[in-house]
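Reopening: structure tokens for the 2-phosphoglycolic acid complex, inputs below.
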Amino acid sequence: MEIVPLASAEEIAHLAADTIEDLVRRHPAAVLGLATGSTPLPTYRELLRRHRAGRGPSYHAVRTFNLDEYVGLAPGHEQSYLATIHRELTDGLGIDRDRVHGPDPADLVTAGQRYERAIAEAGGIDLQLLGIGGNGHLAFNEQGSSLASLTRVKTLTRRTRADNARFFGSIDEVPHHVLTQGVGTILRAEHLVLIATGAAKADAVAAAIEGPLSASCPASALQLHPHVSVLLDPGAAARLARLDYYREVYADKPGWQRL
Ligand code: PGA
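Re-run output (same inputs, fresh job):
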């Protein structure tokens, strides 16, 4: 795993945007895995800023797959993750909505298999952007999720519903169920880029990177993947025992070497 301790959320946004742009320049038909929540928003704003300034690559051939989706929201609900990603990123980059995918809660019995098939038919995800829950969840794979799981329905923990209540009127309006890529789905992507900011993520980040591989911290499954980059601000990096070492390794990295 490549652990990248950075000075601020802004630096994370710049490096994550560089990495995504780099991929799309090399592979104009890249398949991007996108995360929702608060953490990726500065990265998305940076990509949009560059795109509007005419400095970004063309995204017209890109396809995207969201990590997860709520179950039970009215179609087109503004907090659905598909509506969120249109609003926060893909519409602004000029990606046709037909090329922007999320798990489809219309038929829950077949939704998981349909999503897995859609990702496979697209040729798999080239770069998957990830956040991490304060409890160590990855996408909506809560603690105890199988590390081999594929896209399926999960029940959110009360903590996750409380964390996400800020996007809704109250915790009571946060759905109890979601469709989420499984940990096994995520591990199939070519390159995983996990971003985390703020002290509230410090324990989860330390458990994921330095703790034992365990379904009790689904994000620890990153340890099984051959190409993971973890971009951290000082708050999120604060509980890492080997922080000095990660700093040294990153400082030594030649400029030509991409994440
Ligand atoms: P956040 O969510 O970016 O809103 O903190 C991350 C997550 O729960 O995976």
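The first strand starts at residue 2 and ends at 5. The longest helix spans residues 9-26. Marking as resolved unless the reporter disagrees.
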